[in-house]
Design a protein that fits this description.
heterodimer, A: alpha+beta, two-stranded antiparallel ribbon, 3 helices, 10 strands, elongated, B: mainly alpha, 2 helices
Amino acid sequence: MTETTETTGTPEESPPAVGWGGLALRIARVTGWTLVWLGALTLGFVAHQLWITSWFAQHNQGELGEERVAQWASTSITEVEVAPADDGETAQDPGEAPPQPVVLKVESPPELHAAFALIRIPSIERLADGWNVVEGVTLADLKTGAGHMPDTALPGQPGNAVISGHRTTYGQPFHELDQLKPGDRIEVETALGTHVYAVRETRIVAATELSVTEPRDGAWLTLTTCHPMFSARQRLVVFAELVAGPNFDAIQELT
Amino acid sequence: MIARLYRMLPGPTAVRILVSIVIVAGLLVGLHFFYDWLGNTILDTGGAVG
């Protein structure tokens, strides 16, 4: 009588373990493989966020640059007369002529999701050559470029132009925003020309603090990004005031 | 485990390899969208306020 042995599984598999030692071995093996896979998935997440999203952003920036140039070519610029604000505090002499309206150059509003501006911050290396700005701040908009918040002023116009951008992913355009100091220069180029702003103040606020987007006297640029780094809990907000540009003199007379 | 899953695929080797490539590509695409959602949720929403 010959004895036959039935084997199951593959040669590389270890023989079935028995007893408590075998159970412990099996638990250790399953735990080990689970940790290996979790580690691989975590490393994959880090690589995806740091490099793959940035690759997407760089690729999109190239396309947005062409789109912006086309947008500028089709943007119409008009001159609008605006009466200076009457604060009611200074009494006007009876013989004095009423204040003359000032002429503001206004560009046609950009299409939603379209690139219409270029932001440059000379003191930040990655923004020294500029980063395209699109109209809109949806997740999809901000994956392609910095986003101008609709319903806030356009750059170079009176009020508060709000621009948001990623800090740690998708090209990290606003990664070093915390390094800006009062007086640092920010340039925003639109179809109208280059609007130059000077940093006045930096603030950390809650992610839902909408008051930073409210209109302000004069012409302001407000940049917002996530804070602290690698967290979406708060916002780092930089306020900058217009100091030169096509509408600077007119806005000075208005305020 | 991966070798065992590969052996469970039907058909000859060429078909198995093709099916494996399709499955891996599908997993990578799924992983990309999962990572994207996770990053946009916890890491960096883009900096918009509100």
